[in-house]
Amino acid sequence: MSRVDEMDQEMMGQRESLPEELLPAIRCVQCGKCSSGCPVAFDTAHTPRKVIRLLQRGWLEEAGRSPFLGFCAQCQACTVRCPRGVQVSEVLLALLRLAKAKGWVRPDGFHRSFEEMVRQRGRINELRLGFMAQAGRLPSHPLEDLLLLVKMLLRGKLK
Amino acid sequence: METPSSKTGLFFWDQGGRLGKALDLNWLLGKLSKTKGISCCSLLDDPWGPGGLSQVVEKVQKGELGRLLWVGRFSREQKGILKEKLAAEGFNPYLQEWCDLEEQGVCRDGLEQTARNKKALLLIQMWLARVRLLEPLAPVEIPASDSLLVIGAGAAGLHAAVSITNLGKEVHLVERQSGVGGKVASLHRFYPRLCDPRCGLEFSIQALSDSGRARFHTLSRVVSLEGGPGNFQVRLEKRPRFVDEARCNACGECARVCPVEVRVSAESQPGGEPPGLLPAATKAIHPSLPMGFPVAYVVERQYCPPGCRECERACPSKAVDLDQEPREEELLVGAVLVTTGWDPYPLSKVEEFGYGLYPNVISNLQMEGLLGSPAETPKEVGFIQCVGSRDERHLPYCSAVCCSVSLKQALYLKQRRPDANCYVFYQDIRSPGFQEELYQKLKQMEGVTFIRGIPSTVRPEAETGRLRLRVEDTLSGREVNLALDLLVLAGGMVPSQGSEELAQVLKLPRNSLGFFESHLQCHPEESQRTGIYVGGCSREPMGVAASIESAQHAALEALRFTGGTVLIDPKYPVVDKTKCDKCKRCMEECPFGSFYFDENGFPTPHLGRCRQCGNCVGICPLAAISLRNLTIKQMAAQIQAASTSFMEGKEPTVFAFLCQNDAYYAARDAAEAGLPVPPNVVFVKVPCAGYVNNALIADALALGIDGVLIGACQDGQCHYVKGNQLVSKRSDDLSDKLQKMMMERDRVRFVNLEIRDSEKYTATVEQFVQDLRAMGPNPFKI
Questions:
Q1: Which of B352, B392, B451, B472 to mutate to test the interface with A (most CBs of A within 10 A)?
Q2: Which helix (H) or strand (E) holds B71?
Q3: Residue from the list A41, A42, A83 with its beta carbon closest to the beta carbon of B393
Q4: Which residue ranges in chain B fall short of pLDDT 50?
Q5: Domain finish residue from B491, B514, B545
Q6: Residue B374, domain CATH
Q7: Which residue of B has its CA nearest to A83?
């Protein structure tokens, strides 16, 4: 048996190991309607259909590391259009959670600060969040950002 | 028929000496000849050789034998020979039985010879008990009309009607619309030959007209159906045509003066769906639609302006009669064919493609019209497959034809406009059989692109009106952006609109999808009402060729209920009116709706409708129903005879009821293959596991039999719809009762067996016997 065959069988066997919330993926017939209607599908190397396909084959980690997960806007267009009733955006969200738990995806500075602030105070101070998210790295557009800050303060958009 | 004498002849035939090897035949013969009622008991030497049956024939001729029991292995053919030979001597074939000791495993059991002899004796006594109660029976003749009713005069109905008239029978065609032809008449071309479908339709209309044996009832519907196969009384309601069919010769003068324009879709397609290749609009008086047959025109009276009688005045042959009333007509037919066909799935329900919103998004049926019209052929055309079909939100099934339809349309489009570009958006191309050729042809054609991916939305460009479409080519994972002039949606098929009403009138079960139910594999055209057959798309989505084939098959099946008389096997149920309390359970549970009330209000089976499965026998709470050749009394007598323990000591005994379609064969083959079936079991076969009445099970247990086994088909495989489920449910109920009686509920066991499940049968019996050993003997055991 060739190496490829061995891998295939191993992968086939992994279908059972999908966690329950990802199981709807096996109902997919790969018609591509989810990607066709997705506003961000072609902004990354993967489309929602492909992520579902990776799950079907049992390539959980590859699916979890898919760049698409970060782009999904949870607009539900895929879920609404799916002819097989796969709750695509729910599956993707569950996959994202799993990926974070497994450490395949690391939350960036913004997300970390946001979470921390909610934990500490129960609400968000936008100005502080902005600084915290930017802390530790140089602002990419310092001048524009400063102008924007002044503008927003003047209009009362930041408190 | 008078009761025949109770003198019984018992004849052994030991093929290949197998019985003699396993049993002490002399001991058995000696024992049995002393049994009461046995007037003759002997071992046949060679029943198939010359004179081999002479002693039996002689005795029958002298009237010394009233009934017969044959012991040994007799094949079906051999049984037939015996029946025929003795019937020639005036011996009723229903007064004999066959007891096969080998299939009961007597020859191979792991028993001592004495125990074997004991079991063989018991089996013969069981069958003797049955033979004593046999009654002489004869087939029942019921009269059968010589005509058939075909409901729906589309392609399937017309072709079936031609086959019927070719065989010399009469046919009544009932059609809801003003003309025949159905959906196929509105198609432009049909595959595989890409010819005009009207050609075949005209051909069959011609054949029917020439035969003189076909009557067309257009603008009609069936409002009631009484009686049964052989003589259904059908009542039709006929809408007025307002034109005399005998006088009108379709000169068209009337239409010229008619002041009203009517949209065709309203008349021809009640769902408001587009009419395919039919004219978009006509006058209120117009030729029959979809095809101009019957030749007479028809008036859409609801559109006539008040007081207008222009057409009446214009008609040169005085054919128009605007005061016609609806009328009813009664028909007597032997059988009914339902070929009511399909309707397109309403595509406006599939919102994402903007059907009904954008004028250049059309259905495939509309595309037929476009291809047949002289209109300019668009250049950039997209075909979206599986619109509505194979979609949980719409139709969960494949509509079977849409792939080939789109292929055909793309091909024809390219023929009309070679520089056209076609894009077929699909998830799977299903082109079974020879239709693959069409697919391969198109795949190689320049300007035809197959994109595996279904678009999700369609947006029109404001300035050009073209349709913008974005789709993932799932095979490459790339985005495809297109601007199209026309988008064709391959919509699905649903059962035609009238089928729900028709189902109520004919009491015809439909499946959850609205198609008429049938036993899809073995008897695809046989509905669950005997004498009513379903063909074409009213049963399952299929193409024109398959529809015609299926309708003709249905016609072939239906013909057995025509031709003067129908013979009914005397195995039908009879209701004991002294016991029946009119609870109507039999009426409810009969899978074929064969019961009706007689003049005294007793449920009575209609002999023609009944399929003799015996589910009514099983369901009757008072055990008041019997099959004529397998009465409750005969069965009870067999059970009683089996209750004398044939096993040594405390070994449990099992009585098994096996369905004769599946489970029986599993048991027989287990014995034949020498599988280690425990000797503790004896079985009888029943027409369907649903035959087993709880009273029989209770009888067996009360008489001291340790366990009762019921062998039924797998779920969903019962030939009688759900006899297996019914008996399983009932035996569950019974086991609850047993528990209340302080009897182990496990003493009644239910098992699903397929025809080749010999191993499973063996294992089940083995397990059952073990469990019974653990339970200990039946407390009722003497």
A1: B472
A2: strand B67-72
A3: A83
A4: 266-272
A5: B491
A6: 3.50.50.60
A7: B391
